[in-house]
Amino acid sequence: MTKKEAQKIAKYKDLTTESQRMWNVKVKVVPEIKGATGIVPKSLRQYLSSETGKCEIKELQTTAIRGTAHVQREVLR
Which range of residues forms the domain containing residue 16? Predict the structure, then answer.
């Protein structure tokens, strides 16, 4: 999963730089990687603890599941 995290951070490097320039704010990429079984890397807890807002992994997983279900409902109509 460490390799995937590095790929995600590299993928959004340009967007991070552009956002920092446009809005003069500090931007940090938080790669959210979940396996098909719902496992998350240990480093996700470190990323979330460094943020000022309170966010729990369970909330992220629930949001992802709801989003996936919404997309599936739209496609299967």
Answer: 2-76
Q: Indicate the angle between helix axes 13-23 and 2-11, nearest 10 degrees.
A: 40
- The pTM is what? 0.50
Question: Number of folded domains in the chain?
Answer: 1
Mean pLDDT of 44-67: 76
Query: How far is 26 from 69, CA to CA, in rounded Å?
Result: 33
End-to-end CA distance of the chain: 35
Closest residue by Cα to residue 52 from 34, 32, 33, 28:
28
